[in-house]
Design a protein that fits this description.
This protein has helices at residues 4-11, 19-37, 122-137, 154-158, and strands spanning 44-52, 57-60, 63-72, 78-80, 86-91, 94-99, 107-115. The chain is of the alpha+beta class. It folds into 2 domains: 4-40 and 118-161, Orthogonal Bundle (Hypothetical protein yqbg), CATH 1.10.3230.30; 44-115. The radius of gyration is 20 Å and the shape is elongated.
Amino acid sequence: MLTTDIIKQHLVLDHDEDDQLIKAYWDAAIDYCEGLIAGPIILGQRTENFSALASPLVLGPRVSSVESVTYTDIDGEQQTLDPLLYAIRYTAAGWRIEAAGTWPVGTNATVTYTAGYGNVPSAVDHAILMTIAHLYANRESTTPVKLDEVPLAVRSLLMPHARVFL
């Protein structure tokens, strides 16, 4: 598990002046890596919005629980779907909420759920660490020299955790 101290050790920093910058790069690195693997890394509560309450509602990978499914009924009132009316199933495309009974007519469905790794794999942590180091070393969007990606670097570390080929 990454910590600010581990990141600073990797960056060979022995001061605290860049701690806020490191935190910003850490957040950006997580976002970047989550995009590459098409799913959440850090375990936490998330929401997914759908235009209609229609089966199935596709959530993606690493779902550990569904807290609620809410929707707007035909009278314009916010409702919570009874958990007995849906089942949570895993497919190759990710986690799905499927009807286990007749669903009411509804729009603006919102699923609140928990997803991410309970324990982030070391390869994913290392990919995040390498991305932070890249952002820290290359603070501008351009450089006077051509940069190449290091073979077996971030994408290779993340490939086993991706839903799609990187």
